[in-house]
Amino acid sequence: MNMALISLIVLAVVVAIGFIKKVNLGFLSIGAAYVLGMAGGMKTSEIIAGFNSSMFVTLVGVTFLFGLASVNGTLDLISKKVIALVGKNTFLIPILMFLLSAFISAIGPGHIATGILMTTFAIYLALEMDINPFATALYAKLGANAGCASVLSMTGVLAKSLSEPLGYSGFGLHLFLSTLLSGFVFTMIIYVAYKGYRVKADNPMKWSEIPKFNGKQLMTVAAIATMVICCIGFKLDVGLFAFAMASVLILLGCVDEKKAIKGIPWGTLILIVGVGLLVNVISELGGISLISDFLISFMSERTAAPIMAATSGVLSWVSSTTGVVMPTLYPIAAEIVDTFGSGVNYVELISAITATSFAAAISPLSTGGAIIMSSYSAAKELSTTEQNRLFRTLFLLSAVNIGVNVLMAFLGVFHLGGLFL
Fold first, then answer.
1. How far, in Å, CA of 323 to CA of 313, rounded?
2. Are 4 and 39 in contact (CB under 8 A)?
3. What's the pTM?
4. Which end of the chain is less enclosed by CB atoms within 10 A, N or C?
5. Other CB atoms closer than 10 Å to residue 22's CB: what's the count?
6. Which residues contact 351 (CB under 8 A, 6 or more apart)?
């Protein structure tokens, strides 16, 4: 048995152990990467080279800054003020919830932080306004997933970091719009299925009843706006600039830094860089090429995108999009392009991979679905039977969403007409 095959078996075992034992895949992956690399004849320096320190700094900086904004109530207040804009036109709340979540996710926090914030907010807002809390939570989570591939967010940073070593760059807008479109399409399906157009709240949120931003919150808004302008307009490093803005807010006494530090999703960050380290070792040992050769063996130019989309969706059920799916499938996408040449486009493939993986992330087996279940259960105090029913519903919706994205991939939707390539 060659090392390429052994490396893939190790990856499968690590993912299975993490899923069954419910332990952090990142720590397991780092340990497995070391053992596997040494067994494969790699030097320690070659193994460590797979740890993406630049991405780690960026992710910590961005999540810390927006953690500060969450702790001092800035993000929550922004959300309430935006919701109040609809006034009595409460049938717009589902669409607005999606757009608001997508916007917040896109400017930096990403799908996890935004999902937690907006899903919880959506459920309690829906209960207060006497509208469907489950559907409202779905709009929020779908929005958080849809907006998370911007160049400022965790997914966008990861996509750039994974693709540049493969020789691809400059696709940020295309990837963002693809993921946004995917999320919006399924949001419209949910909107119709749950009759969102009939939403009529007896207690609409009024602008006059929402408190004004205090001085600390205004400075936080200014810090975030400054980061967005400087990083997008002047191409400054997102992670380091986020640290700079966070430092200013701390020195001005605008935030409680200890709470924000505790709120940083360290486990998720370790998962991302840990699995990335393992996948890099697997790639060095030939495992990625082995998978790509297998997929290519029954793949055509026409079916490349839908097959990769389906693969990413199923894999996302038992693993993290940013921690496992993207680091594993992006290199395979590059291998497929090398095989088929101009008949297959790398950016279209990774767009299908990313969008479909996030489409699956409303499954209760994924973080997104788990957030919905936990928040909804806490707010409604569901019985065991109701919790099981909610589990089945979320899993079914996840499967349908994967199917929708595979169809979109087959129809060439993720190519976006070549407008941004």
1. 14
2. no
3. 0.72
4. N
5. 7
6. 174, 175, 178, 179, 414, 416
